[in-house]
Recover the amino acids of this structure.
């Protein structure tokens, strides 16, 4: 018969290794070592960090082999050090092996390298593909560009933004609407497909 061992400890903002590449900091640390259900729950100033990623939240749960999975909720911040991304939201799921980050509830991703902010009800970042998927009230902000849609795909490698679901783009005062909108963020080229509407400022203005 399997036996569960539950260990409860107060860490009080000290830092301790939890796997070969992961360290944690938390006011309270609870671990369950039941075979096949191993997990560690952190509450109070919780912080998990590695060479590549940092997660801070009110509550964090680690599970899986070598704590592959990270879940968090409450006031939450994710920092991807390699790509200079900052992600916030209400709840978080990370698969460290597959390089996947999912955020729900007031989700926001700031791509500092490309000076871009992505917002939505749900954001999924697929690191291997450098692809960000945004759903539910997607909004993308960049300098003189504001884009809105129900669904958006941001391909970071090619600096391409694809919008669908009542998309509209405002750029330097010009407004574009279509069934589907594709934007090359490097060249500022905007491709409109389907039913197209545009409001363009007078050239003299």
């Amino acid at each position: 018969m399997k036996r569960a061992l539950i260990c409860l400890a107060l860490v009080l903002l000290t830092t301790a290794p939890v796997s070969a590449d992961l360290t944690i900091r938390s006011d309270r640390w609870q671990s369950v070592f039941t075979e096949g259900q191993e997990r560690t729950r952190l509450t109070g100033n919780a912080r998990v960090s590695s060479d590549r990623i940092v997660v801070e939240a009110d509550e964090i749960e680690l599970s899986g082999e070598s704590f592959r999975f990270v879940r968090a909720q409450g006031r939450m911040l994710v920092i991807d050090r390699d790509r200079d991304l900052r992600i916030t939201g209400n709840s978080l799921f990370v698969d460290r092996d597959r390089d996947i980050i999912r955020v729900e509830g007031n989700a926001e991703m700031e791509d500092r390298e490309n000076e871009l902010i992505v917002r939505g009800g749900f954001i999924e970042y697929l690191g291997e593909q450098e692809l960000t998927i945004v759903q539910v009230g997607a909004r993308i902000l960049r300098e003189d560009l504001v884009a809105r849609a129900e669904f958006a795909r941001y391909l970071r490698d090619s600096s391409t933004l694809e919008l669908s679901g009542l998309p509209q783009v405002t750029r330097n005062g010009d407004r574009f609407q279509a069934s589907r909108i594709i934007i090359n963020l490097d060249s500022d080229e905007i491709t409109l497909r389907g039913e197209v509407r545009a409001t363009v400022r007078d050239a003299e203005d």
